[in-house]
Amino acid sequence: MTITQEYNEKHHLATKIYAVDILGGQCVMCGQNNIFALEFDHIKPTRQSRRPQLGRSLSRRSAENTAIRIVNGTEDLTNLQVLCGSCHLIKTYYEGNHGNITIRSLNKNPAQEVK
Ligand SMILES: [Zn+2]
Question: 35 alpha carbon to ligand 1 midpoint, in Å?
Fold first, then answer.
C-alpha cells in the first residue's frame, strides 16, 4: 500500500467514524457499534441508493460519498440511519419484497415470517 493509499484509508475511516457518530453511533436495529460493520442506509431509498440486485450493499465509493455529505451537512439526515451489514441486508430483503418500509416496522426476527 502506498503512502497515498494509506492516507486515503485513514481519512475515509475518520470521516466514517464522524458521520456514524452524527447518526447515533450504532446500528438502529441491533445496537452493533463496530465501525467496520456499520453502513449508511437511506430510510426511503433514493435513486442513488436503489440497488439493482437484492442484498447488495452500497458500493464503497458511494458509501464514502455519503459519509462526506453527512459530515459536510449536505445530506438529508432525516432520511438516513446507521445499520450493521446484517440488518442492512435484512432491510434490503424486505424492501425488495414489501416495498418501502421503515426499520421500526421490522420484526426483530424476520426469519419467522419467511415461510
Ligand atoms: Zn444491526
Answer: 12
